[in-house]
Amino acid sequence: MKINIDQVLDAKGLACPMPIVKTKKAINALESGQVLEIHTTDKGAKNDLSAWAKSGGHELLKHEVENDVLKFWIKKG
Predict the structure, then answer these.
(1) 20, 49 Cβ separation under 8 angstroms
(2) How far apart are CA 19 and CA 1, in angstroms?
(3) How far apart are CA 42 and CA 34, in angstroms?
(4) Dihedrals phi, psi of 59, to nearest 5 degrees
(5) Helix (H) and strand (E) counts for the chain?
(6) pLDDT of 54
(7) Where is the secretion signal located (predicted)?
């Protein structure tokens, strides 16, 4: 599946709740349907970001781990 990325957010090295705070700010700047790619090293972000996306009406397209970096793709609702 090819995902077109509209913005990349580097939240590596930040502890909870900063990845969510920065994600919220970044997604607010996007248009509906655009995709935000988030990179974080906060292990709690997997649950936090998926729950946050769902509660905000956004879609978590996928997530993966690469070299201890968690990557998420969220489509703005």
Answers:
(1) yes
(2) 25
(3) 24
(4) -120, 120
(5) 2, 4
(6) 96
(7) none
To which residue do tokens 């009406």 refer?
A: 57
For position 66, what pLDDT does the model report? 95
Give the other-Cβ count within 10 Å of 59's Cβ: 14
Contact by Cβ (8 Å): 12, 46: no
What residues contact 32, with CB distance under 8 A and at least 6 apart? Answer: 76, 77
Strand order in the sheet with 35-40: 7-11, 35-40, 69-75, 59-66
User: The whole model's pTM is what?
Assistant: 0.94
Copy the structure tokens of residue 2: 């090819």
Catalogue the active-site residues. Answer: 16
pLDDT < 50 positions in the chain: none
Q: Report the run of H or E that residue 19 belongs to, with start and end.
A: helix 18-28
Residue with tokens 């397209």: 61
